[in-house]
Amino acid sequence: MRASVARWVVRAGVVGLLATAASWVASPAGAHATAVAESPVQGGWSILSVRVPTESETASTIRVEVTFPLDTPVPAVRTSPLVGWTATVTVEDLPQPLANPHGGQYTQAVSRVVWETTDPHAAIGPGEYGEFAVQAGPLPAVTELVLPTVQGYDDGTEARWIDRSADGTEADHPVPSIALSGPVDAAGTVGAVGAVGAAHHAGAGPEVGAAGDTASGPGTAVVALAALAASLAALVAVALVWRRTGVGTTPSSSGPVLPDDVPGRDGLGEDPAVRPRAPRTPSTIGLPPL
């Protein structure tokens, strides 16, 4: 009985350990609005996507507004069709003209893009997220493109993803942002803005996304490590208990198993199948007298 219980506890501990490790790898960084991009290089064009989760348990997302700050100007964007949604691009004059790659100047830049829907079937319901993409460029000569985002719900409430932390900790509603790698010069060398962005531009690295838009942020990693350490400690403790129960050893109450105790043998220590039989005396019952 103790052996069965110990085995069950050990199996449960192993399952818990594997579940903890799997959740560490697979769990998202958190229910935050984030931004990702394909090969975001300064001066180049890229597909920028803002991913917005519906955190409300009762309301659905029906409006998403993404701001493109004019102090890090993006001259042009093209929206991607999204069934049931309409996209509106707003362009404003720049305080100072911006030189373009063709020898001219950009005098305007995109200030915001707004997606809206009136179709309840197209709205982003509780437990869902939506992705809103644009083709944008030329990207500004900065190391980080910040995209403040406001999310509107059908009950009139809003989630404002516009906060930036001053002390290095994660804000309650962090602003989506994208790291940009340096421009490519005539020799094909990428500027030393970010090794990750440079590697991705060369086709050798992962997709560069928003800060914190990874499988686990600093806070999530600490929690996952603590859970993993606790699971390991529990598994070691269970193994010690299992060992003390005597699983896999000779039962102390019955002594060693002797050959005569093997099932299928009689109490004489011999196998009836191979024991010599005693001579049989013919019976005279029922025979006629001589």
Shape category: globular
Number of helices: 3
Mean pLDDT: 72
Number of strands: 11
As laid out across the biggest beta sheet, the strand order is 5-6-3-9-10
Low-confidence stretches at least 5 residues in length (pLDDT < 50)?
17-29, 186-190, 192-223, 247-270, 283-288
Gap between N and C termini: 68 Å
Query: In sequence order, what are the helices and strands, one letter per element?
Result: HEEEEEEEEEEEHH
Beta-strand fraction estimate: 25-35%
Helix fraction by DSSP (H/I, runs of at least 4): 10-25%
What is the makeup of the main sheet? Answer: 5 strands, antiparallel
Question: SS-based structural class?
Answer: alpha+beta
Radius of gyration: 36 Å
Short description:
This protein has 290 residues and is α+β, with helices and mostly antiparallel strands.
Throw out a few tags for this protein.
290 residues, alpha+beta, 3 helices, five-stranded antiparallel β-sheet, single chain, globular, 20% helix
Would you write up a description of this structure?
The protein has 290 residues and is an alpha+beta fold. 20% of the residues lie in helices and 25% in strands. The chain is built from 3 helices and 11 strands. It has helices spanning 2-26, 195-201, 218-244; strands spanning 34-37, 46-53, 61-67, 76-79, 86-99, 105-116, 129-137, 144-146, 149-153, 158-161, 177-179. The strands form 3 sheets. A 5-stranded antiparallel β-sheet has the order 5-6-3-9-10, with no helix packed on it. Strands 1-2-7-4 form a 4-stranded antiparallel β-sheet, with no helix packed on it. A two-stranded antiparallel sheet has the order 8-11. Strand 5 (86-99) and strand 6 (105-116) form a beta hairpin. Helix 1 (2-26) runs antiparallel to helix 3. The two termini are 68 Å apart. The model is unreliable at 17-29, 186-190, 192-223, 247-270 and 283-288 (pLDDT under 50).
